[in-house]
């Protein structure tokens, strides 16, 4: 990341620092595994995002492969990044008893600071993906000649 100029961005460094710190907290304390696994599920959509970027760069924006990959990216992104938000609904009963606060500050920061930030970003990107998918699939055909 340091060697590749386009990735030398403070947001990219912040993203990876937060992800590594969060992962280490969850790995070190087994109580956070349930929530930590949702972070790993988020990465299942990454190959589709990268494939879209590759196809776009190579000039295949109008190809069937680009459209199929876009739909797959939309579905996997929804299943792995949006539906996992519901996992946190199960925390509410434990918040009332106080037992949740015994897990340690690292896990609590993961659960109540980092994870909501990542989920807000995921919702933002999901809206953009939906708009892009609609535009690619339902916009009038452009003359490519």
Automatic annotation (TrEMBL):
> What domain of life does the native source organism fall in?
Eukaryota
The record lists the membrane-crossing segments as: 71-95, 107-127
Recorded hits in InterPro entries, A to Z, give: TLC-dom (IPR006634), TLCD (IPR050846)
Q: State the UniProt keywords alphabetically.
A: Membrane, Transmembrane, Transmembrane helix
- Single GO BP term: lipid homeostasis
The main location is membrane
Instruction: State the compartments where it is located.
Output: Membrane
Could you tell me which residue ranges the TLC domain spans?
A: 1-138
Q: Does the keyword Cell membrane apply?
A: no
State the membrane topology.
Multi-pass membrane protein
What GO cellular component entries does it have? endoplasmic reticulum; membrane
Record protein name field: TMEM56 protein
Q: Which organism is it from?
A: Branchiostoma lanceolatum
């Amino acid at each position: 990341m340091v060697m590749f100029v386009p990735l030398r961005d403070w947001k990219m460094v912040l993203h990876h620092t937060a992800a590594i710190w969060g992962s280490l907290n969850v790995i070190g304390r087994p109580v956070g595994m349930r929530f930590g696994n949702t972070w790993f599920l988020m990465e299942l959509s990454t190959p589709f995002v990268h494939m879209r970027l590759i196809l776009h760069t190579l000039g295949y924006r109008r190809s069937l492969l680009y459209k199929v990959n876009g739909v797959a990216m939309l579905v996997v992104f929804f299943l792995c990044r949006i539906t996992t938000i519901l996992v946190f609904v199960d925390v509410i009963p434990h918040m009332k008893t106080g037992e949740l606060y015994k897990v340690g500050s690292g896990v609590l920061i993961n659960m109540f600071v980092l994870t909501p930030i990542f989920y807000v970003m995921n919702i933002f990107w999901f809206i953009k993906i939906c708009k892009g998918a609609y535009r690619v699939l339902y916009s009038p055909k452009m003359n490519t000649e």
